[in-house]
Amino acid sequence: MLHPVGPLPAVVYWRRRLLVLGCAVGVLGGGGWLGVAVATGSPDEDTVLTAAGDESVPAPALDQVVPSLAAVQLPTAEPAEEPQDAERQDGEPADEEPPAEALPVDGGPCSNDMIGVEVRPTPASSPVGSKPTFDLVVTNVSQVSCVRALDKGLQEIVMVDASGTRVWGSNDCFPETTTDPRTLQPGESVVFPVLWGGLSSTPGCTAERVQPAPGDYRLRGRLDTATSPDAAFTLT
Fold first, then answer.
1. Looking at the DSSP assignment, which residues form a beta bridge with residue 135?
2. Residue 74 Cα distances to 4, 63, 191, angstroms
3. Domain boundaries, the chain
4. CA 125 – CA 127 distance, rounded (Å)
5. C-alpha dihedral sign at 17, 19, 25, 30
6. How far is CA 105 from CA 22, 140, 146, in A?
7. How would you label 208-223 residue by residue, b for 16+ Cβ within 10 Å and e otherwise?
8. FRET label pair with 175: which of 61, 73, 140, 223, CA 20 to 30 Å apart?
């Protein structure tokens, strides 16, 4: 076997033997691989299916994945509206100039703002039991003449003590009823003297009347709804 015999050179026979040996080794190797494949399963089927899937499904086009900018509607900024003169930007009505106050008409009615009411005790102090006189003064403090009702029933003077308790009222026991509309010129004053009998009283004159004790008191006057500031009065 190691020394081939034949008419050809020995090198030829060695080459033939190596070729046969290589084929045998290849057959044996292929059979071994086939046996391993049968024992472990077929090649990576997922890879094959994926590859097959890749060939059958074409890749999506770029314009199908990303929408065209022409098809996208972008919001457009609306121009800001200029605020109207009659309204503020917050929707509330703009501040309007207040209407001019109507000036008093000469010869018209006297409002409370056009007259002043004052009580003047004469004198400012009196002994207990005396009968002092209190003056109710109504003055036109406006710049025009005006008409005001000065009826007796609209006039009143009230006395209160230091704690504010009512002591006497000029209309409690002897109310008077008159009709006295007057035209008061600018700065004109009308004086109505009221005599106090020196005794206490209540509205309607139903309570017993007594002499108030000595002390400090206050007098308040009114003409209808127009009132005066307090005036000090002392009983000694």
1. 120, 193
2. 93, 19, 85
3. 10-53, 108-235
4. 7
5. negative
6. 140, 14, 8
7. eeeebeeeebbbbbbb
8. 140
Distance CA 66, CA 120 (A): 98
pLDDT tens-digit readout, 54-91: 455 455 554 454 455 455 555 555 555 555 554 555 55
Average pLDDT over residues 23-52: 56
pLDDT for residue 161 is more than 90 = yes
pLDDT greater at residue 52 or residue 227: 227
What type of residue is 38?
A: V
Distance from the Cα of residue 25 to its chain's centroid? 100
d(CA 213, CA 224): 30
One-letter identity of residue 113: D
Task: Give yes or no for a contact between 201 and 169, defined as CB atoms under 8 angstroms apart.
Answer: yes
- CATH superfamily to which 108-235 belongs: Intracellular proteinase inhibitor BsuPI (2.60.40.2360)
